[in-house]
Amino acid sequence: MDKENLSYVGKNLLLVVIVLLIAALVFVLGLMLGYGVIGDGDNVFAVLSPAKWQELIGKFTGK
Question: pTM of the full predicted structure?
Answer without folding.
Answer: 0.70
